[in-house]
Amino acid sequence: MERPRYIAVEGPIGVGKTALARLLAERVGARLVLEQSEQNPFLPAFYADRRKHAFQAQLFFLLSRFQQQEALAQQDLFSRSTVSDYVFARDRIFAALTLSPDELVLYERIYGLLGARNVAPDLVIYLQARSDVLLSRVRRRGIPHERSMDAAWLDEVAKAYQEFFFHWEETPLLVVNTSDIDLENDPEDQEALLAVVRKHRKGIQHYVPLGTRPG
User: CA separation (Å) from 102 to 55, 60, 84, 108, 114?
Assistant: First the structure.
């Protein structure tokens, strides 16, 4: 398929970012870059007490993603197509949700030093889903530290993502509603979305599949 050189997939917890990123990378023979959430030692404590452990968790994520992006740059990002399951700027969404005002000021100073050195994707695919669907998918994947997540938190995260991408102007953007489709297991859903991705090159496009399955 014709493709941008660097595609980033984004969206709230449980929406299917990694499944789509894996699919895209497989189809285009691209290098796959995945967020290493399981390597964040502060994440279990964060979900147990978000306010107390937010700064450590966010700072670890920020530095981890920066190191990944630096490694890509050293390998020559454009020598091979790349698909990632995050946008570097996403960390600011969670920082704004979880950090105290003083912590956020410090975080933004660090982000400002690191973020300017990252290469913007050629295309961002923003996946959306209803909060009840997100919760169902989170429960289904059964990650231990995610058991404390509730619908209210996922709804807050989803709304923060909507606000973030409402103002997005950095790259072409494809917004996909995944509430009624299964991008991980259904070949028809996969092919339909891949067809849309092939054609999208500029501006903002919304794709709302006419699926009927529950999340």
Answer: 10, 18, 31, 10, 19
